[in-house]
Amino acid sequence: MKKSILLFTFLLTILSSCKKDDNKNPGECYSNNNAHSIVHDGVNREYVLFIPNSYDGTSSVPLMLNFHGFGGIANDYLQEADMRSLAEADTFILIYPQGSCLDGLSHWNACPLGGDNKSDADDFSFVEAIINEISSQYNVDMERIYAAGYSNGGMMAYGLANYKSDLVAAVASVSGVMLECTGSISHPMPVVHLHGTSDGVIPYNGSSDWSSVQSTLDYWINFNNTITSPTVSSDNSGGMSIEHYVYDQGDSSVSVEHYKYIGADHVWFNAIYQHQSTSELVWSFVSRYDINGLR
Q: Which end of the chain has less Cβ packing within 10 Å, N or C?
């Protein structure tokens, strides 16, 4: 485990130090079976699409985007952060986009206008292109589009909250962090953040490279005008102690929530909180909201 953490940290260090790259050869760093393709900025980009059998097109349904981490492959990530049973049960469209290549590793450019930009990939407009394509083919509730992600994908979810808030109703980050760049946000933004206290890649308390979890929460607490003293509950019935912090009563009745996994590393968590998996916690949070706030 320590070797894998060191390797991932090394890869992240490479990513942080890279200059803008052309990322024009997507096939060099990933291979997705049965993926959908879309040409964006002259590059053939991919996404994995799941349409539940419960969808019949008679009424509009939510759209959930879930972004893999740095170096990830969408098909593999779908297996790790699987939300298909939830999509079937609650009838929503599920998309796992594929990041483009940067020096042979896939990535998300979650801060294109600031010092933390990693490449010239316009991933925000790529996501918008996906949404436009899917909404032209399926009956999508445009007020219920959600973004979640793991690690670099969590950064991407926060990036969409900052730069594409006109499209995204709520976001979730798992073992991710918000980069130090913010956009013009058009509505109160519900946020749930899940993080392990022993994360060796994106440290819980921050580092010279990454903001701390609390500073990320504080940003959204302040932006949404929530309470500043959270309601706290905990559960260890799933084999790990997990603390749940709720900052609610925000504008448009939105909340900022945090699941703190005591002793957990840099992962999409397998531990259960009050009988709910990570995917269930993410969906149960974001699905409470539309772009106008609490539904």
A: N
Task: Tokens 């993926």: give the residue.
Answer: 35
Reading across the β-sheet that carries 256-261, which strands appear in turn?
36-40, 43-50, 93-97, 61-67, 140-150, 170-174, 191-196, 256-261, 242-247, 231-235
How far apart, in whole angstroms, are the C-alpha atoms of residue 272 and residue 237?
8
Tell me if 80 sits within 8 A of 268, measured CB to CB.
yes
CA pseudo-torsion sign 66, 75, 131, 16? positive
Asked whether the beta carbons of 23 and 36 are under 8 A apart, the reply is: no
Strand partners, 247: 256
CB 124 within 8 A of CB 40: no
Euclidean distance between CA atoms 192 and 68, whole angstroms? 17
Query: ∠ at Cα 186 (163, 74), nearest 5°?
Result: 40
Tell me 60's DSSP state: -
Full pLDDT tens readout for the chain, 295 residues? 444 444 444 444 434 433 334 444 445 799 999 899 999 988 899 999 999 999 999 999 999 999 999 999 999 999 999 999 999 999 999 999 999 999 999 999 998 766 666 688 999 999 999 999 999 999 999 999 999 999 999 999 999 999 999 999 999 999 999 998 888 899 999 999 999 999 999 999 999 999 999 999 999 999 999 999 999 999 999 889 999 999 999 999 999 999 999 999 999 999 999 999 999 999 999 999 999 999 9
- Max distance between CA atoms of the chain, in angstroms, equals 51
In angstroms, the Cα distances linking 24 to 21, 40, 100, 119, 183 are 8, 11, 8, 11, 27
Domain 2-294 has CATH 3.20.20.70: no
Sign of the alpha-carbon torsion through 124, 126, 129, 134: negative
Q: What gap in Å lies between CA 97 and CA 73, rounded to an integer? A: 9
Length of the chain: 295
